[in-house]
């Protein structure tokens, strides 16, 4: 099998499921009607609700859902071999992830742009929405822990990436300053930013920044607290703007390189059902695979993004399929590229024998191995320097991870305030100094960052923390799918056709709940006990949510 | 014609990716506009603001803000949704 064949099979599967399955769900269950007004028209205000051209909405939605996660997940999952890994990506994508994203988006469109969290409270009971908030907050803390681990590991493994990333931040601040304060031309500043970015990558190899993990954790902690509290125009906005160009270059170069490379997949196709993928412990492929490959196959956060912003920008309902379903398939394609890159060059770059993959003592590959494999593909097809390509690919992953880290902390700050405000109903308590102190922006940002970085302390086993984040994310997806299922059954009255949401919802819930139990038992002593407590809380809450789901399903459609 | 369509698609996709970077700025701008509206017409609901006669004079210029405020008030039970939607996975 070669990379070209893998990529062609992936494209064929995606086109087939889109046309044969996605379209059918859109037609038979959601009953997409291009004539029905979308919230962007119905509630048009030129502020939140504005219709956009579908490629623009697609690009925006895709950029929000495709970060570092679809790259990191497959890297860890390759312990099982590349075939089970890619099968889960394709299966999860087509029958769970894309359906989940599409249903979340369309339900939000039908509820005037309300979030999936709000809809869960509407179609089940209001307390489900509150639990959803708690879930989101706990997930955010695990996101900080998982991504801080990934970034620190990358910086330690490839010190030149640390230099490039810090220089990238400096370039972003400079471009932001020139754009917002000096009001210089956008095109000129974009060119300047990209030239400086190229120079930063080239320069980073000369002055690699080698620091310990603890030092990096402290630096990352300070960074995310400051970035989460600074005005967005100083760092976040110019950095995200430059990130968009990085993502496009990364996808175009990588996609073309591995499509035309036609290199043989030398990575073992299958190692063992119990390969040590998570935290170096034997991890059964089922139920633990969704904990490892989260966003590449399915992700709960997509429902939050789709129903939070995308639904308010949809010009017509007929765009929902290509944006909700299509963007998820595109993200799966990114994960497919990662598997293809490591499939060809992974063994050479990591310097391991095929027989050692997934054997006892195996530790998940670092991001650096993927970056170098990517660079070797780009070198073989386009002649790009391997050193430049490695730093470039690492910088892209790192830029996404840092973006996720600071947006997470910003949102966790908000979620913290939201939970307190909804949980504390007494006006007297709300006016107290202690309440104001705990909900102030600096305290809220520090709590989320400190908890996340405290949990991140898992030594070299970043995969253990990664799986905790994956589990939280997948349970969010299960809740969103349950919400969609109740909506399809009780509101759309789809009858037996709603099985396309019921089966994935229950399959995902059972799988993730079983994986939680496995995680709590197996990871005791490997991860921080607070991580286990968080996982335990989530497990209890997930049983409660299942109960609410069954009650709502039994209750049936509301009588008119 | 087909090439033009492909170009439009790629252009739109690129705009979408860049749009994502201005999302936070837009969100903050919307919040500032809300505060501005409240400052101007808050006197009607007891918030210390400019005297009512000044507020009434500027009212015709605030039609859009009033509409947005009404909708924001309606969405008060879903304020997390918009912020959570800014997450990047």
List keywords for this structure.
heterodimer, A: 560 residues, mainly alpha, Sodium/glucose cotransporter, 22 helices, 0% strand, globular, B: 89 residues, 5 helices
Give a description of the structure:
The complex is a heterodimer of chains A (560) and B (89). Chain A has 560 residues and is mostly helical. Chain A contains 22 helices and no strands. Chain A has one domain: Up-down Bundle (Sodium/glucose cotransporter), CATH 1.20.1730. The N and C termini of chain A lie far apart (57 Å). By secondary structure, chain B is an all-alpha fold. Chain B has one domain. Chain B has five helices and no strands. Chain B has helices at residues 2-21, 23-41, 52-58, 63-74, 79-84. Chain B is elongated. Chains A and B meet through α3, α6, α11, α13 and α16 of A and α1, α2, α4 and α5 of B.
Largest sheet of chain B: none
* Level-1 CATH class name of chain A: Mainly Alpha
Order of helices and strands of chain B: HHHHH
Count of DSSP helices of chain B?
Answer: 5
What share of residues of chain A is helical?
A: over 70%
Domain count of chain A, please report it.
1
Could you tell me the radius of gyration of chain B in angstroms?
19 Å
Average predicted confidence as pLDDT of chain B: 77
DSSP strand content of chain A: under 5%
- Approximate helicity band of chain B: over 70%
Structural class of chain B: mainly alpha
Summarize the structure.
Chain A has helices at 3-30, 39-42, 54-65, 69-77, 82-110, 116-123, 126-157, 159-180, 186-204, 213-229, 236-261, 285-292, 300-308, 320-350, 367-382, 386-423, 427-431, 433-439, 441-455, 462-491, 499-522, 529-555. Chain A is mostly helical and 560 residues long.
């Amino acid at each position: 099998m070669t990379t070209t064949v893998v990529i062609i099979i992936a494209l064929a599967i995606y086109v087939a499921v889109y046309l044969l399955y996605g379209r059918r769900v859109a037609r038979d269950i959601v009953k997409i009607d291009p004539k029905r007004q979308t919230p962007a028209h119905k509630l048009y205000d030129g502020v939140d609700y504005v219709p956009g051209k579908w490629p623009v909405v697609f690009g925006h939605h895709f950029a929000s859902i495709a970060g570092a996660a679809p790259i990191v997940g497959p890297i860890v999952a390759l312990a099982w071999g590349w075939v089970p890994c890619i099968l889960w990506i394709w299966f999860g994508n087509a029958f769970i992830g894309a359906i989940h994203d599409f249903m979340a988006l369309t339900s939000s469109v039908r509820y005037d742009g309300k979030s999936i969290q709000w809809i869960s409270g509407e179609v089940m009971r209001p307390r489900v929405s509150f639990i959803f908030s708690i879930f989101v907050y706990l997930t955010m803390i695990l996101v900080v822990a998982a991504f801080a681990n990934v970034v620190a590991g990358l910086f330690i493994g490839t010190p030149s990436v640390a230099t490039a990333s810090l220089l990238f931040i400096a370039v972003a601040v400079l471009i932001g300053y020139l754009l917002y304060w000096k009001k210089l031309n956008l095109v000129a500043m974009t060119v300047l930013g990209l030239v400086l970015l190229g120079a930063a990558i080239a320069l980073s190899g000369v002055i690699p920044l080698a620091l310990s993990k603890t030092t990096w954790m402290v630096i990352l902690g300070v960074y995310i607290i400051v970035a989460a509290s600074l005005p967005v125009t100083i760092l976040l906005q110019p950095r995200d703007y430059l990130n968009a160009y990085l993502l496009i270059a990364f996808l175009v170069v990588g996609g073309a390189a591995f499509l035309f490379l036609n290199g043989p997949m030398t990575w073992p196709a299958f190692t063992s059902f119990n390969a040590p993928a998570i935290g170096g412990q034997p991890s059964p492929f089922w139920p633990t695979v969704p904990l490892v490959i989260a966003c590449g196959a399915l992700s709960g956060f997509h429902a939050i993004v789709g129903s939070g912003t995308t639904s308010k920008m949809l010009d017509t309902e007929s765009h929902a399929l290509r944006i909700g379903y299509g963007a998820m398939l595109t993200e799966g394609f990114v994960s497919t590229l990662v598997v293809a890159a490591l499939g060809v060059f992974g063994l050479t770059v990591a310097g391991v024998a095929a027989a050692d993959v997934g054997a006892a003592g195996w530790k998940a590959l670092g991001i650096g191995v993927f970056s170098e494999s990517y660079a070797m593909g780009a070198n073989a097809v386009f002649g790009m320097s391997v050193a430049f390509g490695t730093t470039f690919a690492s910088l892209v992953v790192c830029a996404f991870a840092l973006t996720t880290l600071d947006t997470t902390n910003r949102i966790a700050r908000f979620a913290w305030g939201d939970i307190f405000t909804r949980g504390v109903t007494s006006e007297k308590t709300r006016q107290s100094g202690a309440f104001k102190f705990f909900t102030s922006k600096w305290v809220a940002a520090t709590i989320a960052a400190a908890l996340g970085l405290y949990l991140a302390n898992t030594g070299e086993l970043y995969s253990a923390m990664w799986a905790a984040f994956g589990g939280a994310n997948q349970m969010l997806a299960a809740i969103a799918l349950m919400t969609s299922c109740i909506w399809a059954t009780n509101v759309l009255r789809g009858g037996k056709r709603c099985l396309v949401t019921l089966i994935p919802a229950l399959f995902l819930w059972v799988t993730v709940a079983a994986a939680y139990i496995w995680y709590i038992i197996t990871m005791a002593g490997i991860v921080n006990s607070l991580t286990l407590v968080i996982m335990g809380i989530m497990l209890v809450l997930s049983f409660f949510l299942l109960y609410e789901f069954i009650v709502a399903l039994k209750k049936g459609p509301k009588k008119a | 014609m087909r090439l033009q369509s492909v170009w439009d698609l790629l252009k739109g996709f690129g705009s979408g990716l860049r749009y994502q970077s201005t999302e936070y700025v837009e969100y903050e701008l919307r919040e500032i506009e809300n505060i501005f509206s409240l400052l101007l017409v808050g006197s009607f609901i007891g918030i210390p603001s400019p005297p009512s006669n000044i507020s009434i004079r500027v009212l015709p210029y605030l039609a859009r803000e009033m509409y947005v405020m009404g909708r924001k008030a309606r969405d008060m039970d879903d304020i997390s949704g918009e912020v959570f939607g800014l997450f990047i996975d």
